[in-house]
Amino acid sequence: MIVTRFECGSRLKLVAMLVLHRRVKRHVRRLARGLVGVKTLVDWRTSTMLSITLWKDLDSVYSMGQVPQHVAAVRVPGSLGVRTSSGVFCFAGDWRRVMFRSPSEPRSPLYPLPSRSARKEG
């Protein structure tokens, strides 16, 4: 998962970033491989936007470099004076294992669960 924060400083810049984000999102969905979904959160009071993208695996994130519209759009926030920060968040394990140190297997929810018959055999 990638989370990018856009601190726009004004609603006008925020609207510009939302329009840009919407346009680029269509190209990313079409051209990037491994994208599971995109969610945009907006705080109008602080003129801040969070873009959250969920990817099938870490290698898929690199396919963003194959989307010319995204490559070009990366330069826009700085030219508008919009401050950004971004972070990569990876799967840490089954929730029971992470929260309670349970011996649960680390199964990512991004992949199908094994069939019931396969679980009984294994």
Describe, in plain words, how this protein is organized in 3D.
With 122 residues, the protein is α+β, with helices and mostly antiparallel strands. The protein contains 6 helices and 4 strands. Strands 2-3-1-4 form a 4-stranded antiparallel sheet. β2 and β3 form a beta hairpin. The longest helix is centred in the first third of the chain and has 21 residues, at 11-31. The protein starts with a strand and ends with a helix. The mean pLDDT is 92.
Task: Give a quick summary of the entry.
This protein is globular. It is built from six helices and four strands. The protein has 122 residues and is an alpha+beta fold.
Topology (elements, then pairings):
Layout (H helix, E strand, L loop, with lengths): L1 E6 L3 H21 L3 E9 L4 E8 L2 H4 L6 H6 L2 H5 L2 E6 L6 H6 L15 H6 L1
Antiparallel strand pairs: 1-3, 1-4, 2-3
